[in-house]
Amino acid sequence: MRCLKFINCLIILFITINSLHAQSGMTGLFNPVDSVGLYQMNIDVETFHFSGLLLVKRLNDSTIRLVMNSEMGPKLLDMELYPSRYKLHYAFPKVNHKRFLKTLYDDFGTLFQVRIRNKNLSVEHSQNGYSTTYSPGKKTQIIYTADSLSNLFTSGRVMEGTSVSSKFLYVFEEGTSNISFMKLEHLPFTMIISLTRL
Predict the structure, then answer these.
(1) If one looks up domain 2-197 in CATH, what number appears?
(2) End-to-end C-alpha distance for the chain, whole angstroms
(3) pLDDT of residue 138
(4) What is the bridge-based pairing of β-strands 163-172 and 153-160?
(5) What is the pLDDT of residue 42?
(6) Lowest mean per-residue pLDDT among 15-24, 25-34, 39-48, 68-77
(7) Residue ranges of domains in the chain
């Protein structure tokens, strides 16, 4: 019975993803249809490990909704991400801590480029490519780095003052702008988020 419910959930998720591909894309640094969909998710926080599925759905030009399920099926988190805040629909009691939820907002908002909407930016060019810097907060800067061959953002970092608080990377399917893997890693403490597109 439980297996049947899980299979039904997967079928609904895949139908939702197919309908997302039919929607028009929101403006952003890369094609958002490539960043919207279903991901195998792994989150390591110090000695704890979470894994499961992450469904990302674009609600409008600057808002996305995240639904995080564990491998065994129960929903862990359901939240909407806006450029400067988040709205919580549900959080499993063990993850319902304000500091942890704010960290997830910052991380997923950075990876899916929600936090940079309508923010000031500067562009710096180099021989290897260019970087675009956004300032979503007084002391916070998000820097996306593009490679000159593909012209796609492949990595970046989040600066808090003069120190790097986290770094992230994007891996694309060869010859396309389709994201196949994303990873964000915090530097002051151990927290790593890995997303593999299904």
Answers:
(1) 2.50.20
(2) 24
(3) 83
(4) antiparallel
(5) 93
(6) 15-24
(7) 2-197
